[in-house]
Amino acid sequence: MVRLRVLVVALGVLGAVDAEAQSQITGMLSVHLGLVSGGDTEAGVSPGVSMAIIENNGLGAELDLAHTVSFVDDAYDESGITSLMLNFVAFWPEMRVRPFVTLGGGLLRVRATPQSDVAEISRTDWGLNAGAGVLVRLDEAVAIRGDLKYVRYVTRQDELTFVEEGIFDYWRVSIGATWNWPIK
Fold it and tell me: What is the average pLDDT score of the chain?
């Protein structure tokens, strides 16, 4: 019984940390407009949204959703890429201009409808992405974000006939607005 009391008191003392000393977490919501190019794509507009949770040390997680329209040549009536990635994010500490890097994985869906009578080509599988960028804070709540990401499938997708060699991949450059808010 004495050990239990000592344990309860010890946990109470450890839990009584001043609110100011606790870790501050920041939520970030970004809307962005990008351009997809390179790799197995020709060019395509790519709107998207990202939601991140960042600790005051600059480390956090981000969920990124983007959809690209018309990324292949005239041999296809329609084409699209949808990516949903969960990323590790590392921002440089609190500054007005904050460079950052991202690395993660998730789902990648690629589809294309040929102009011929051939059925739609479509594949959803695991993908990887890595990137870097910069966040420029305009004030405490609003920032401008620009980033460059490399995205690819984890494995080879032979049914994607427009892939030149190897694994389907592409680059995305984007710019957007970010809203920040503190989470306690």
Answer: 84
Residues 6+ positions from 66 with CB-CB distance below 8 Å? 32, 34, 46, 47, 48, 49, 81, 82, 83, 172, 174
Render pLDDT for 37-79 as a digit per residue (tens, 0 to 9): 888 778 889 999 999 999 989 999 999 999 998 777 666 778 8
The pTM of the full predicted model, rounded to 2 decimals, is 0.81
Contacts of 24 (CB under 8 A, 6+ apart): 55, 56, 182, 183, 184
Q: Looking at the DSSP assignment, which residues form a beta bridge with residue 68?
A: 81
Q: CB of 96 within 8 A of CB of 136?
A: yes
Q: Are 151 and 131 in contact (CB under 8 A)?
A: no
Domains observed in the chain: 26-178 (2.40.160.20)
